[in-house]
Design a protein that fits this description.
This is Alpha/beta hydrolase. Keywords: Hydrolase. One of its GO terms (molecular function) is hydrolase activity. It comes from Leucobacter rhizosphaerae. Residues 39-289 form the AB hydrolase-1 domain. This protein has 309 residues and is of the alpha/beta class. It has a single domain (2-308), classed as Rossmann fold (3-Layer(aba) Sandwich). 44% of the residues lie in helices and 20% in strands. It has 15 helices and 10 strands. The strands form 2 sheets. An 8-stranded mixed sheet has the order 3-4-6-5-7-8-9-10, sandwiched between helices. Strands 1-2 form a two-stranded antiparallel ribbon. Helix 3 links the parallel strand 7 (110-115) and strand 8. The longest helix is centred in the C-terminal third of the chain and has 18 residues, at 291-308. The protein is globular. Residues 4-8 have low confidence and may be disordered.
């Protein structure tokens, strides 16, 4: 497919993307691929889809093969019914989906870039399959374990949805289903620091997918797993001192919660041997608010693997 959108200065950018699908353990993952060069997997956050990456992918595709994938439970990927033990939407299962997608495309070793929930899946993928991930970039997060171990009033207020969505009594699904459009808008309202707004066509895609059958239950299960089985996996790795060995780049919004409340690079150095990072003049959705700057940082980071080769 061909995607057109306005880039910096109002110019029209044409990004050539080919739809792809893979299936692992009975779950079909939807995505698209474009560009040429060393492969880069791009993973989105909540409540978005792979469409969020288009402004950044346009730049990356000049030098890399970009794979934009919908996570399990999101976009046009399958949304299986959650298992009671949380395993269906464990980051381990979601990471295996993406590993299988890249393998189906012939990529045995690749870089991963994730934002928000996608960054948490990327972190797990790099832990579970270090032979496949040669570089990791995480946008606007610190590790899930660190977040839950440092809950305070500011975190509980800003990230109230973590605790709301993690309820396993059916309440979040019922309340969100009563007015899903209002809930969806609330995830973006007030989270822009004056940069580029969310592309209306991208937002329409987020809404279409969020309103699709099973999406609310699946995305809620994502958070329920994060507060249970994911924490078990993360704590076991942390206690065993299993750290990421590949280079890690952390980017965060200078006007968002993460940058204001954590020394982001210092936190990641507890979990990764080679971590560095920088803030971006944006809020949480930095890849859409400041795509040129994000792409610039990613291109420089990804170019280092080619220099090393």
């Amino acid at each position: 497919m061909t995607t057109e959108f306005a880039s910096k200065g109002g110019r029209t950018v044409v990004l050539q993307l080919t739809p792809v699908r893979s299936e692992h353990a009975g779950v079909r993952i939807s995505g698209c691929v474009g560009g040429s060069g060393a492969p880069v997997l791009l993973l989105h956050g909540y409540p978005q889809t792979s469409r969020m990456w288009h402004p950044v992918a346009e730049r990356l595709a000049e030098h890399h093969t970009v794979v934009l994938a919908d996570l399990r439970g999101y976009g046009d990927s399958d949304k299986p019914a959650p298992a009671p033990d949380g395993s269906t939407y464990a980051k381990r299962a979601m990471a295996r989906d993406q590993h299988a997608l890249m393998h189906s495309l012939g990529f045995d070793r690749f870089a991963v870039v994730g934002h928000d929930r996608g960054a948490r899946v990327a972190h797990r993928l790099a832990l579970d399959a270090p032979e496949a991930v040669d570089r990791l970039a995480v946008l606007d997060i610190v590790p899930t374990l660190h977040m839950f171990d440092h809950v305070d009033r500011a975190m509980a207020s800003t990230y109230f949805h973590w605790f709301f969505l993690a309820l396993r009594n059916g309440l979040p699904e019922s309340l969100i289903s009563a007015d899903p459009r209002t809930w969806l808008r609330s995830r973006f309202t007030g989270r822009n620091a004056g940069g580029r707004p969310i592309d209306p066509e991208a937002y329409a895609e987020y809404e279409r997918c969020f309103l699709s059958p099973g999406a609310i239950e699946a995305s809620t299960a994502d958070y329920q797993s994060a507060a249970t089985v994911d924490l078990e996996h993360d704590r076991a790795d942390h206690l065993a001192d299993r750290r990421l060995a590949m280079p890690l780049l952390a980017l965060w919004g200078a006007h968002g919660y993460v940058g204001a409340n954590f020394d982001v690079v210092d936190v990641w150095r507890t979990y990764a041997e080679h971590a560095r990072g920088t803030e971006i003049s944006a809020d949480h959705y930095l890849a859409e608010e400041a795509p040129e700057r994000v792409a610039e940082e990613l291109l420089a980071f990804l170019a280092e693997r080619e220099d090393a080769a």
